[in-house]
Write a structure and sequence with these properties.
The protein contains 16 helices and 8 strands. By secondary structure, it is α/β, with parallel strands linked by helices. The chain has 2 domains: 3-187, no CATH class; 205-455, Rossmann fold, CATH 3.40.50. The radius of gyration is 28 Å and the shape is elongated.
């Protein structure tokens, strides 16, 4: 039996909660180096396989994220320095550390095999429920933690040291797997955004201009016009590296002006280097200010706020933001509803053009709210790539459907049919996006008055 095979066999015994046979483990510093390099190679390969499409290699990862390893070595030293072992143990700290590296290597190999097998059995991971993805991510770490704790438990009979081991066992695993992981591969930005994208400019002039833009834009909002159902419109496009969202914001603003006369009552918030001199950035503080200002100038008893949000969306209900090098936070439906409630805005039409956006309907539900989404909570939407002029939802809803009606409900129903046909023609393989709509009990009558008003003008 080769020395390397012996280390992996004893690592398998550790992972099956059996005592390793220390007398079979022979080796020195070069054995440890070889196992560490092999473990890095396996991790590098698994990370690359997990990324679809082009990816960039981060060489600096090789000397980052070793804090978990340092903690593990310290715990090994602490255990072997303690008196009162119950069972035979390793000859020195190096042997124990080498075995733990072999354990991690073997677990990574098993994890990689499961990652290949699981889609064939359970389907693509993107279609799994959230709890299943959490279990798949946490299970290897929990297993390794329990196996390591059992190993350390065998090495000492001291109750104090056992308690210390129990408390410290999760630490190196949490550091390496969660707090400070070693990432070699990153999705290539140029694959989605184009190689020319280099981020927003954060010069003093741009920052000063942005501060002025949001103030001037909100100050210019006119008060409600008596005797009419006034629509105040706002768009929110926080993904800077893909122009499709900037384009969609402009199209939606144009449609709302042409069909509902919003014009000076429209606020566009767009994060994009190409518009940063003319349009305020789509940041959470700017959206908060916009909602508060509209709530202050509108007639809350009769006027309607229309809000369109467009970006990438996740199963976790977050609306993605990309504003490099500016650090911004993703938008959530809970926070949006809180701001709308605080502003006292009673009548709301909210449109979300993003993958998995159906998850926003329940958190935003209100008697005075109509929510329209580009997809349900479990499917992606289409047309949000860097080469897309508009998302499928933006095109179907705000270019095709609303030109024939002033009813948001009718337009959404027509857009839904158009999207299904176009997704089939485009070869969408993960199921129909299934756009959703949620209508509060009281908003319907207000929108009927708005429709009749616009038809008669």
């Amino acid at each position: 039996m080769t020395p390397g095979a012996a280390w992996l066999i004893e690592a398998a015994r550790v992972l099956s909660f059996r005592a390793p046979r220390w007398e079979r483990l022979e080796g020195g510093p070069w054995t440890l180096v070889a196992l560490v390099l092999l473990s890095l190679a396996v991790g590098l390969g698994l990370q690359r396989e997990a990324i679809d499409g082009a990816a960039t290699f981060e060489w600096s990862a090789i000397y980052k994220s070793w804090s978990g390893t340092v903690v593990s070595v310290w715990i090994c030293w602490l255990l072997l320095a303690s008196a009162g072992r119950r069972e035979p143990g390793p000859a020195n700290v190096g042997t124990l550390v080498t075995l733990l590296v072999a354990v991690t290597l073997l677990l990574n190999l098993a994890d990689g095999a499961m990652a290949r097998l699981a889609p064939a059995v359970f389907g693509a991971s993107d279609a799994w429920p959230d709890w299943a993805r959490w279990v798949a991510w946490l299970f290897p770490m929990v297993w390794e933690g329990l196996a390591t704790l059992r190993l350390w438990w065998r090495l000492t009979a001291s109750g104090v040291v056992r308690v210390i081991a129990l408390l410290l066992t999760p630490l190196p695993i949490a550091i390496s797997g969660w707090l400070d992981p070693m990432y070699f591969w990153w999705p290539a930005r140029s694959a989605e955004a184009g190689a020319e994208y280099s981020g927003l400019s954060l010069s003093e002039e741009v920052l000063d201009r942005q501060s002025t833009l949001i103030a001037e834009t909100l100050r210019a909002l006119p008060p409600s016009q008596p005797g009419l159902v006034n629509v105040y419109a706002a768009t929110y496009a926080p993904y800077a590296s893909q122009d499709v969202f900037m384009h969609e914001s402009a199209v939606v603003a144009k449609t709302m002006t042409e069909r509902f006369g919003t014009d000076r009552r429209t606020v566009q918030l767009v994060t994009n280097a190409k518009s940063q001199d003319t349009i305020p950035w789509a940041t959470r503080p700017n959206l908060h200010r916009t909602i508060a200002r509209i709530g202050a100038v509108m007639d809350r008893e009769k006027d309607v706020l229309f809000l369109h949000l467009t970006s990438h969306g996740g199963r976790d209900g977050l609306l993605a933001t990309d504003s490099y090098p500016l650090e911004t936070e993703p938008m959530t439906p809970e926070l949006l509803k809180q701001w709308l409630d605080e502003a006292g805005i009673r009548w709301r039409v909210i449109s979300i053009s993003a993958c998995f956006s159906g998850s926003w309907i329940a958190p935003l539900a209100d008697d005075g709210t109509l929510v329209m989404t580009a997809a349900d909570a479990t499917h992606t939407s289409y047309g949000c790539g860097s080469k897309s002029p508009l998302t499928f939802f933006g095109q179907a809803m705000y270019v095709d459907a609303l030109k024939e009606t002033w009813s948001f409900q009718q337009a959404h129903a027509q857009a839904r049919q158009l999207i299904e046909v176009r997704e089939k023609e485009a070869g969408k393989t993960d199921g129909h996006s299934n756009p959703q709509i949620g209508e509060g009990a009281a908003i319907g009558e207000v929108l009927k008055r708005l429709e009749a008003q616009q038809r008669g003008r």
